[in-house]
């Protein structure tokens, strides 16, 4: 295919997306100084941030989930709050609560943990489903409603949540409605031997997060988001994204396919991915590259697929391989 097919004269300037790529590279290098050998995972995290999405990091304990979330948060000069999800955490701890002030004889709102640019939700699936649901409104509508009053959350707003696999003790499965609000899910995986040795050398003496300095700020992120929103997406690419999500709804291997929100997240993530790579237009390759982290966690396998040990990622890979890629 030729890149000329996917260009558009009213797309954002190349210089603008090159600036996106430069900032993304700075953030990536900053995080890579702390997280060894996980460049692809880090790139996905940055893509989600620039696409105004939320990130779910799922893996077994001790592989660096919280380290990644903290490193991304510290790379941006913005407000950051951390919520440790526990079985006794209340919804009001997340959203906030109205408290009666004896002096003024009026109720005052005390903001909860979600009132920040970046909210790190550690081990989100160790809280009860009731508390998990407190995030639904703020993640989708970027606002919080308490006692009939609504407070809007400042942009940029991103929830970075970590969780252990549901097979681990003391965990609750995330509801489908909440999983669907996360733009992407990534897994850290075990580091390669060389990276683990490097980690032992650098982390044993002190915490490398202490040396991490911001390389961008909230204002610049807002500017980059505006640029990414202007990245051109050809009609053929839009049809391709919808064809992928539609295929997940029509296969016998899945009991639950991707929602229309998933289609929107897929396109937004593809635009951010294209900009990170210095392009002001989206290629079908961008949609393919981001499809697994964006779609797999939203899908539910059928009994037959589960019995044959086929994960939703495996089913999705087969779908991506089978859907024709547009050539124009």
Report on the structure:
The chain has 328 residues and is α/β, with parallel strands linked by helices. It has a single domain, classed as Rossmann fold (3-Layer(aba) Sandwich). The protein contains 14 helices and 13 strands. It has helices spanning 14-32, 39-50, 65-74, 91-95, 129-132, 136-141, 176-179, 193-203, 218-229, 235-250, 260-276, 284-295, 303-307, 312-322; strands spanning 55-58, 76-77, 80-84, 96-101, 106-111, 118-122, 143-146, 149-152, 158-163, 184-186, 216-217, 254-256, 300-301. It has a 5-stranded parallel sheet. A two-stranded parallel ribbon has the order 2-11. A two-stranded antiparallel sheet has the order 4-5. The longest helix has 19 residues, at 14-32. The protein is globular, with a radius of gyration of 20 Å. The termini are close together. The model has no long low-confidence stretch (mean pLDDT 88).
In short:
This protein is α/β, with parallel strands linked by helices. It is 44% helix and 16% strand.
Features:
globular; two-stranded parallel ribbon; single chain; five-stranded parallel β-sheet; alpha/beta; Rossmann fold; 16% strand; 328 residues
Helix and strand layout, with pairings?
Blueprint: H1 14-32, H2 39-50, E1 55-58, H3 65-74, E2 76-77, E3 80-84, H4 91-95, E4 96-101, E5 106-111, E6 118-122, H5 129-132, H6 136-141, E7 143-146, E8 149-152, E9 158-163, H7 176-179, E10 184-186, H8 193-203, E11 216-217, H9 218-229, H10 235-250, E12 254-256, H11 260-276, H12 284-295, E13 300-301, H13 303-307, H14 312-322
Helix pairs in contact: 1-2, 2-11, 9-11, 10-11, 11-12, 12-14
